[in-house]
Amino acid sequence: MRNHDRQSDAVETGLAPAAPAPVVPLLPYQREDVEAEDRFRWNCWARQTGKSFTKALRRLLRGLARRRTQIFLSAGLRQCAELMSKVRQHCQALRVACDYHGFDELAELRERRLEVALPGGVRIIGLPANPATARGFSGDVLLDEFAMHGDDRAIWAALFPTLLRGEGELDVASTPKGRGNVFYELSLNEAFGRSIVTLPQAVAQGLEADVDAVRKAMGDEELFRQEFLCEFLDESTAFLTYDQIRGCQSESCRPATSVDALAEIAASDGATARKTWVEEERDWFAGVDVGRKHDLTVIWVLQRHAGSGCAAAGSATTASSAAPEYVTVGLIELSHMPFSRQWDALAELLRLGRLRRCAIDAGGIGMALAEEAERVFGSGRVEAVTFTAPFKSAMAIVLRREVEARRIVIPADDRVLHDWHSVERDVTPIGHLKLTAPRGASGHADRFWAAALALHAAGQPPTSRHVLTLPAGMFSARGAW
């Protein structure tokens, strides 16, 4: 007996079965988005509200219904893999026959492309976004976390004419990242259907989350308003915009997070140089922003590329080139750590022969640590820096010049992104630049100032290496030089 015959009989006998549960359970705002008929759709949803989950389902169903290839452009390869894994989950839940390409061999992926083949010749192709890939494919498009895309304007210029000619559909989804990007501008475009979902709105519709706990744990009201209340915060007071910072971020930049890891890098590089009989001078420079109970102690280590010269960072004599001049090799964060242990970590760092110079915040609680380091390791390698307002402004301007010229590479880490962006600029009544940053659970722009100190150390005149008198056994324990 066919299914509908069984159901008819059950209704006639008064034994109608309960309605089947949905294969993919959706909250009301998710269902509304999946079923929307807009050709162009703009979604500004808070984090953790199921944005990628919903969009992957919407484009999968629309692709099957329209028999059109779907192109997913994500901010990076990792985000692309996560989005395509949701497509895979939906296919399994809906029992849609499909083939997967690229998931298991992601580490060896040369084309930087993931693909799902669906019935009827429909494909879903996941790509890290750039203008070239935007031009290279035709079909309906999902721009995932579009506010995070580094070349969003070039991508938009390459993409939209193709969609107009091919009657393609476009979904643009992201959380806000200021107003200086195409995603914000599209919020004013009347051609797009709009959907805004904040975390409190999602919770009111059934999402399981504790808004107050999230707010408290984040410890930064400005970031909470942006990430979870979907507010486009004005970047007019930001010392560095999100676009500027993202322009220096690289997913391939994975700095060491401990002194031991840095020591292993130094030893590995030294062995390579000895084997090839080539002496490469790639000095390290460190900046240390000291904290104790409320702020982090952050050690930022930069490596200057061979042949980049010894000109002061950001000065007029520094030659510009396509290659970055400084690469982040170490980002060590010490939270709520006693000064005795902070000193141990700093001393281990200063014993590394690759480290040419270190600048340490000597203001307030950092004074004892900086003075002891200068006494033990010498003023040629350590500089105790007092944070006066003019000096802070000068260091920050040097960092900004390097960022604007993209001569510095930093990790693609949201903590770094928000930390650097948290520094705000103002002008005093007498015309001086004033820099401030809110204090939150993630620090007080500590990563920003540690990087600025590292550039300051790199910009000082070179000093000759010198012999240190250290306790017996220190060299045998570490093998520093």
Structure report:
The chain has 481 residues and is an alpha/beta fold. It has 2 domains: 28-229, Rossmann fold (3-Layer(aba) Sandwich); 242-478, Nucleotidyltransferase, domain 5 (2-Layer Sandwich). The chain contains 18 helices and 17 strands. It has helices spanning 3-12, 28-35, 51-66, 77-94, 131-136, 152-166, 182-186, 199-204, 211-218, 221-229, 242-246, 259-276, 339-350, 367-377, 389-404, 414-421, 446-459, 474-478, and strands at residues 40-45, 70-74, 99-101, 114-117, 123-128, 140-144, 170-174, 193-197, 249-250, 284-289, 297-304, 326-334, 355-361, 382-385, 408-411, 424-427, 433-436. It has an 8-stranded mixed β-sheet. A 7-stranded mixed β-sheet has the order 9-15-12-11-10-13-14. Strand 4 and strand 5 (123-128) form a beta hairpin. Helix 2 (28-35) runs parallel beside helix 3. The radius of gyration is 27 Å and the shape is elongated. The N and C termini lie far apart (84 Å). The relative contact order is 0.10.
